[in-house]
Design brief:
Helix content: 40-55%
CATH topology of the largest domain: Spore Coat Polysaccharide Biosynthesis Protein SpsA, Chain A
Strand order of the largest sheet: 3-2-1-4-7-5-8-10
CATH superfamily of the largest domain: Spore Coat Polysaccharide Biosynthesis Protein SpsA, Chain A
Strand content: 5-15%
Distance between the termini: 28 Å
Number of strands: 10
Number of domains: 2
CATH architecture of the largest domain: Alpha-Beta Complex
Length: 423
Amino acid sequence: MHYNTALRSYSAKRLEEIEHADILVGIPCYNNEQTIKHVIQMLTHGLARYYKDRRSVIFVADGGSTDDTREVAKEFQIKPWQEKVVSIYRGPAGKGSALRSIFEAACRLQIDACVVVDSDLRSITPDWIRYLLDPVLEKGYQFVAPVYVRHKYDGTITNNIVYNLTRALYGKRIRQPIGGDFALSREVTRYFINQDVWETDVARYGIDIWMTTHAITSNYRVCQSNLGVKIHDAKDPGLHLGPMFRQVLWTVFSLMETNETIWKKVRGSEPVETFGFEGFLEPEPVPVNLEGMIEHFKTGYSQFSALWREVLSPESCEAVSRAASMNAKNFNLSTEDWVKILYELAATFHTWKVNRNKLVDVMTPLYYARVATLVRRTWDMSSAEAEALIEDQAVKFERQKDYLVEIWDEGVKAPLKPAAGRR
């Protein structure tokens, strides 16, 4: 079914009544009755403290929650001079449709700045509003990505894949390209809403990296703002992140095809200006099951190693084979090997036009191997010490970029075709 708008008629009518606003704060949510009240409370306080002279709307974009998320959101009293809209979006289930409804609302209200924050945040403070909005309203930036103080085992997809690839491909050191909390200007809101993405697979888990990449490649003024500690409903990387890994990686690789002429020219990277919180707080620990991740990898090795041999170079296959013979105590898939594996997977995705989702699926165990390696190497480190390791990894992605460009057009083993029976 095709949706020409993500707004239901009652939401559209409510926006018509409001007519105009300076700031719109969007909250995509689904079954978040435990946290939504706290998030709205912090937002209404932040808007009152820092932007009392501007007209503000809090827009809750719900995915049809089966708990009391919407009821809690409706009942919570915001400041009398602020507006609140609680809506159920239209369109495919997922964050993308929620964001589409938020951006549509922002365009209809002709806002100056739009902020989006996650609905499961427990660490949000009124200051987050200022940290995100000030770069847009006061300094002329058009897209503000978040930086968080995160536990070393939180954000494994960012730390092992997305930060490295975004930095190496597009030359900007945006530390959290798939962070859920960001701000954008009126121009970028309009640009995003007019893109043909909202009913595709990208508009699920992939929407955050899609937005960050488009902001960079469209030459909008991009910065980041430190929000302090992020405490949310963290997920054990060994249990919950497989589907997200697949969708994010699929989106990153698809964007590489779209932006091929841009990223092939980029070498090295530059920092982006960073605003916001200036202290350091030790984040809550995130539980990880090291043995479980290694088990995931070894099971994948026994199932898919024949296919991996078609996708990866002989050197990468040898590195994977070595890792499969190791126990938890000395388990290792080195940074150099991981860089090559990820670049080879990107090149294969580009060459292999058939059943790409399956290709990304069978690579998931390799991601578990890399996360397990990082967990083991950083076991006795603080989160700050582990961060130095992530930076070192990102530099190695930049240094190996010529290898990516070399194999991109020819495939890892040209010509690469799916094996018979695996279509």
